[in-house]
Amino acid sequence: SLTLGIVGLPNVGKSTLFNALTRNDVLAANYPFATIEPNVGVVPLPDARLDKLAEVFSSAKTVPAVVSFVDIAGIVKGASEGAGLGNKFLANIREANAICQVIRVFDDPDVVHVDGHIDPMSDIETINTELILADLQTLEKAVWRLEKEARTKKEAKPALDAAQKAKAILDSGRTLFSAQKEVDVELLREHSLLTTKPFLYVFNADEGVLTDAARRDELTKLVAPADAVFLDAKVEAELLELDDEESVRELLESVGQEEPGLYSLARAGFHTLGLQTYLTAGPKESRAWTIPQGATAPQAAGVIHTDFERGFIKAEVVSYDDLIEAGSMTAARSAGKVRMEGKDYLMADGDVVEFRFNV
Ligand code: GDP
Predict the structure, then answer these.
(1) Which of 87, 216, 288, 306 is least enclosed, having the fewest CB within 10 Å?
(2) pLDDT tens, 272-284?
């Protein structure tokens, strides 16, 4: 499955956040046979629709979609110079599908900031610089090779142009993710570059920042078009210790949050990875399934079982809203809200589906 790699400067709260991510029990509860790796944190994607579906279908349980985060330990400054730990750091990032940078915006005189003061832009630039330098090294070799190739093979020209363009963007200090409109990243795929990966920013904040809409807005703009999430990692850890809803609500209220930050983090992570869900419902379970945005009906069926994709005939689809309005599948059918979709159908978020297939 796709993963987000958590990176950040020392002392920004990565471990605190990561511990909170690994302490929720979604994996154990719903995926008893999954191997739980020590450096992977799996969070459920909150989805209130599942409880509603479970009511309508008298499902025995609900199974949410999940988002996986990988803890990428290691030093950051100088990583691109290729010293042992730095190499490992870059190799781990290369394996992740998106980069989730934790940035400290909490005040605490007891926690030393590596650069002496809180400066989100400078934190972002420090990480970006290492990734940019690593990509530049990769591209320098690639351009050299592609130039040679392009002399004898015309087909190599677009790849060479893209690599040169990418190099110029990186030379100007920008990531390829932030410049994706200027260069065709498909043509760069073979180089496994780091800065083409989508970025997500987690601002580890204190109450002062969490309750300051203008400050949050400013930080959100700073990282756009990447997603920004605001949470207090220490509070997230405390929330997991609480077992009654009232205390949870009180603690959230005290920091001006409407829901746990892990919820927004899960949603943003899912979005950053380019994923969406569709739903199935029945007496056994109501469940959200993960598919890439733009997946077709047979591809969606394949997520349940590869045989479903191979033997795909039709998908019986009703939108969640129509289904809930009708009150039952039978009522939705008589209201003409249930559609039969073929193999070219592009799945929409909130589709409740039953697949017809040959085995
Ligand atoms: P890492 O080096 O990025 O993994 O940072 P840690 O998670 O180890 O956190 C460094 C220190 O900051 C620890 O003493 C944490 O308790 C503290 N810390 C982490 N998150 C917060 C936060 O949101 N608020 C405050 N005040 N302290 C935090």
Answers:
(1) 306
(2) 999 999 999 999 9
Enter the ipTM. 0.95
CA of 11 to the centre of ligand 1 (A): 6
123 CA to centre of ligand 1 in angstroms? 15
- Counting beta carbons within 10 angstroms of the beta carbon of residue 257, is it exposed (0 to 12), middle (13 to 18) or buried (19 or more)? buried
Candidate of 15, 69, 111, 262 to mutate for ligand 1, largest count of ligand atoms within 8 Å of Cβ: 111
**12 known member of a binding site:** yes
Element (H, E) at 275: strand 275-281
Test site for ligand 1: of 16, 207, 210, most ligand atoms within 8 A of the Cβ:
16
Beta bridge partners of 68: 3, 42
Strands 66-71 and 227-231 come out as unpaired
Q: Quick one: which of 265, 200, 186, 199 has its CA closest to 232?
A: 265
What is the whole-number distance in angstroms between the Cα of residue 233 and the centre of ligand 1? 7
Tell me the β-bridge partners of 70.
5, 40
Sheet of 227-231, strand order: 40-44, 66-71, 3-7, 98-105, 199-205, 227-231
C-alpha 265/C-alpha 228 separation (Å) is: 9
Beta partners for 5?
70, 99
List the domains of the chain with CATH numbers: 294-357 (3.10.20.30)
Dist CA 174 CA 155 (whole Å): 28
Q: Which tokens sit at 169? A: 């963007």
DSSP code for 274:
T
Apex CA 355: angle with CA 51 and CA 275, to 5°?
60
pLDDT tens, position by position, 18-57: 988 887 655 555 555 555 566 888 889 999 999 999 999 9
In contact, 16 and 71? CB cutoff 8 Å: no
Residue 30's contacts (CB-CB under 8 Å, 6 or more residues apart) are 63, 64
Question: Which residue, 357, 319, 325, 321, is CA-closest to 338?
Answer: 319
Distance CA 329, CA 319 (A): 11
